[in-house]
């Protein structure tokens, strides 16, 4: 992987238009960016089971400065050459007690968030869909990385990426609203994929129904919105306390169990979904305040169930069935990654044309996040112990392959709102320069007239939209009668 060409972000924007361009705003193409999936790897400390075995010589060597990982085969009979394999990633996090190969101190939860959490928040407020998913064998530290030791520990050092992302979202929302003209709403959904069925973890249960009873939903596909979960409940959240409350409700009914490899093994794939929507307000020359839709974004935070070898986890009965479904869905995810990587590297000459998204509920839900309209990050978690060599090597190969996937993400923004914002920015810049007499006043006046026209168009469109929604509701009521 180290010989690969440098991965660059290709930014494709519409050609800048002259202020007097009379083309329709609806024809303006949204800003798009094409870039590869960003992949990070984290090695966790030894757990109690591994410490009892006595051999604490790590098979994993990391160099934080070069973002490389080297894994050594502990079995002399299987060694060929020097017995090591080297991988290149975007970020690596060494969380053992001693410094890594470059002398860098062990990575903390804060370090992980700074590298992969902050960019996700920036993308969300820029109107891009985004996704972060954690992959690794059972007991490798995925849930700890995503959620933390205790999700209710809001300000603690052990807080995971998910609560830290939510805290940063609310902080930036406050900053945005203090600057004026922009208001953001945040909604949260929480689902799990258990035995190839999608369950809403925060759905409202009917009276008399046990809280632990599943509310199963179907995954559908919309021609423009892409894959979505029909009937999923989203709850507006205004603070981190609201987020923690919903996650705790979901965690109370999420499927977990104790195995020989993990005292609290996730038996399902869990997805926290955050929906951000912006409303922009502006005041016309007449003093009228109008509101238009601004940017919007969706963020998926995915805690995948760990792959496991039944011979090691020693599960049976229902847990054996769960492990089978987990491994099958992860196998499908691996096939999707392989095909997308092959299609990206061979530029249309690949033998594959469409990955098997629909063969698993997990890959169907994450269709946009893999090869679609999303800024996607992956964090792979591994064990340093020699007893987990095969799983660690498999995880690193899996993660390395994901780096070849290319997504094309586009800004989700109403075309009229985008054009109004662009005109406002141009006008503000012109007004700043007016004092020096370096700008034509007629040009600024022309911009102001166009802005007024756009504001009027936006308000009319909003009225038509409201009227259409009322008519739709009336039609539905009449059909029921």
UniProtKB/TrEMBL annotation:
Residues 1-37 are annotated as: Disordered. Residues 7-20 have a biased composition (Basic and acidic residues). GO terms for molecular function: ATP binding; microtubule binding; microtubule motor activity. It comes from the Eukaryota. Keywords: ATP-binding, Coiled coil, Cytoplasm, Cytoskeleton, Microtubule, Motor protein, Nucleotide-binding. GO terms for biological process: microtubule-based movement. It is found in: Cytoplasm, Cytoskeleton. GO terms for cellular component: microtubule. Its main location: cytoplasm. Pfam families: Kinesin. Residues 36-405 form the Kinesin motor domain. SMART domains: KISc. PROSITE patterns: KINESIN_MOTOR_1 (PS00411), KINESIN_MOTOR_2 (PS50067). ATP binds at residues 136-143. This is Kinesin-like protein. The lineage of its organism: Eukaryota, Discoba, Euglenozoa, Kinetoplastea, Metakinetoplastina.
């Amino acid at each position: 992987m180290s010989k690969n060409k440098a991965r660059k972000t290709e930014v494709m924007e519409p050609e800048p238009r002259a202020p007097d361009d009379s083309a329709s705003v609806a024809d303006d193409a949204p800003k798009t960016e094409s870039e590869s999936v960003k992949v990070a790897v984290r090695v966790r400390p030894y757990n109690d089971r591994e410490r009892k075995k006595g051999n604490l010589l790590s098979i994993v060597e990391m160099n934080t400065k070069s973002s490389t990982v080297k894994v050594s085969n502990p079995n002399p009979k299987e060694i060929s050459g020097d017995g090591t394999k080297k991988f290149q990633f975007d970020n690596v996090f060494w969380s053992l007690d001693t410094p890594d190969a470059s002398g860098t101190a062990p990575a903390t939860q804060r370090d992980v968030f700074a590298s992969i959490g902050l960019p996700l928040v920036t993308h969300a407020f820029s109107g891009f869909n985004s996704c972060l998913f954690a992959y690794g064998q059972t007991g490798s530290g995925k849930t700890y990385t995503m959620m933390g030791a205790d999700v209710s520990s809001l300000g603690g050092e052990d807080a995971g990426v998910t609560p830290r992302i939510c805290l940063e979202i609310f902080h930036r929302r406050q900053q945005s609203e203090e600057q004026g003209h922009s208001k953001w709403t945040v909604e949260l959904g929480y689902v799990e994929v258990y035995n190839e069925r999608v369950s809403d973890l925060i759905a409202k249960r009917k009276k008399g129904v046990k809280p632990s009873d599943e509310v199963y939903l179907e995954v559908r596909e919309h021609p423009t919105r892409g894959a979505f979960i029909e009937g999923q409940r989203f709850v507006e959240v205004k603070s981190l306390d609201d987020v923690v409350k919903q996650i705790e409700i979901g965690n109370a009914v999420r499927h977990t169990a104790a195995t020989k490899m993990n005292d609290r093994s996730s038996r399902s794939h869990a997805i926290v979904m955050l929906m951000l929507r912006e409303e922009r307000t502006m005041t016309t020359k007449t003093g009228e305040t109008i509101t238009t839709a601004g940017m919007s974004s969706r963020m998926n935070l995915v805690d995948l169930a760990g792959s496991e070898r039944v011979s090691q986890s020693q599960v049976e009965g229902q847990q054996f069935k769960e492990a089978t479904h987990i491994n099958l869905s992860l196998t499908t995810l691996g096939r999707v990654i392989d095909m997308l990587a092959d299609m990206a590297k061979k530029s249309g000459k690949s033998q594959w044309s469409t990955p098997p998204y629909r063969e698993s509920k997990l890959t169907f839900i994450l269709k946009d996040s893999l090869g679609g309209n999303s800024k996607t990050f992956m964090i792979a978690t591994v064990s340093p112990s020699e007893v987990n060599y095969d799983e660690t090597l498999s995880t690193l190969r899996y993660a390395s392959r994901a780096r070849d996937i290319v997504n094309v993400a586009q800004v989700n923004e109403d075309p009229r709102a985008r054009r109004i914002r662009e005109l406002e920015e141009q006008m503000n810049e012109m007004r700043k320069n007016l004092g020096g007499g370096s700008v034509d006043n007629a040009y600024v006046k022309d911009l102001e007239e166009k802005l007024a026209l756009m504001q009027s168009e936006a308000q009319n469109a909003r009225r038509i939209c409201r009227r259409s929604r009322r008519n739709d509701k009336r039609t539905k009521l009449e059909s029921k009668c």
